[in-house]
Write a structure and sequence with these properties.
mainly alpha, Methane Monooxygenase Hydroxylase, Chain G, domain 1, 2 domains, 14 helices
């Protein structure tokens, strides 16, 4: 019984987390589908408006950070596929070759109109359904097209008026990604202090493993930029999204520089170099990065960390260290400090000058 209970918790635990994450978007899409059905059935008198709620659901989906452009692509793709299916089904009839023709025409027309994959996929799929599905099972000839238009229009309006607050998720992901950078640097610092090759190797592995988190952050920021461009509700967050986009580029650069430092440190440790002083400085950088992560989540002023970064930079001078390997590490760490100073709000030239002073 205990083993079975553990297995159930192992399966349902992550599933419950997914349910909680998707509950809001699913409820919104379900409401949009119901509204699309109501409009097609009551206002237009369609007896079986299958494609109205279907188009609304397909267009909105269950993603929390939906983009208006993607919703529009889905809606247009569904409507285009239904329209072409109606025309070709009426002219050619139903059958195997008719399905192939309808799919090819719908997909190629979608490729002509849009470079993305979404519109082409939906246009082809809906064309197949329309050609195969008898008109008597839907809303009659060309009624299915108006159903799809209504569903797509409802989805687009919902996406514009309920943008999903992607800016909040962007703050959280910024914190999480910089926490990964800080954790990597903290592990590297321990490896440098103790001459521990495994600890440095673990730091490098953790830095590489953070890439999916960066991709999620970028996706959320793309949804945020889309929202502030099209949604009147989100327009006041335009500057916030722009700043987080700037920070994302710099944080990515900082992580790349940190990984380079870690790889070079790994070589130095394997060569039995004694680097405890450098480890202490890397540990101090990790503390600053952790502080920047907290500040990005709360929206605090990051400029206060410039003092700490300048102080660390004052001790990270190549001439103060012996050996070309150690000096090359110092140069790389100074590049990392420039990235971090830019995150606090300085320009590239100002950051370089801050370290030179």
């Amino acid at each position: 019984m205990a083993a079975a209970s553990t297995a159930v918790r192992r399966v349902l635990g992550p599933g419950w987390g997914r349910v909680q994450h998707a509950a809001g978007p699913v409820a919104l899409a379900a409401g949009a589908a119901a509204l699309a059905y109501l409009l097609a059935h009551v206002l237009l008198g369609q007896p079986y408006p299958f494609f109205a709620p279907a188009a609304a659901w397909i267009s909105l989906g269950f993603q929390r950070d939906r983009q208006v452009r993607r919703v529009a692509e889905m809606a247009i793709g569904v409507s285009l596929g239904v329209a072409l299916g109606e025309v070709l089904g009426h002219v050619l009839g139903a059958g195997a070759w008719q399905v192939g023709v309808a799919l090819a025409v719908a997909a190629l027309l979608a490729r002509l109109l849009d470079p993305g994959v979404i519109m082409t996929t939906q246009a082809g799929l809906q064309a197949i359904i329309i050609v195969v599905l008898p008109a008597t099972l839907g809303s009659g000839s060309f009624g299915r097209w108006t159903d799809a238009l209504i569903g797509g229009a409802v989805a687009l309006v919902v996406a514009v008026l309920v943008p999903g607050r992607s800016w909040r998720r962007a703050h959280l992901l910024a914190e999480q990604f910089l926490d990964e950078v800080a954790g990597m640097l903290a592990m590297l610092a321990a490896g440098l202090r103790r001459g521990d090759v495994k600890r440095a190797a673990d730091a490098l592995a953790s830095g590489r493993a953070a890439e999916p988190l960066l991709q999620s952050w970028r996706a959320v920021l793309a949804a945020g930029r889309d929202a502030v461009r099209f949604s009147p509700v989100a327009r006041s967050h335009r500057a916030e999204i722009a700043e987080l986009t700037r920070v994302c580029v710099l944080a990515d650069r900082a992580m790349r520089n940190a990984r380079v430092v870690t790889r070079r440190s790994l070589v130095a440790i394997e060569a039995h170099q004694d680097l405890p002083a450098l480890g202490d400085l890397v540990g101090r950088i990790a503390v600053v990065v952790s502080g920047l992560a907290r500040g990005l989540r709360t929206g605090a002023d990051l400029r206060g960390w410039q003092v700490d970064l300048r102080a660390i930079g004052g001790q990270l001078r190549p001439e103060a260290f012996e050996g070309w390997r150690t000096q090359s590490l110092v140069v790389l760490l100074r590049s990392l400090l420039v990235d971090l100073l830019e995150i606090t709000g300085l320009s590239y030239d100002e950051a370089k000058s801050a370290l030179a002073g």
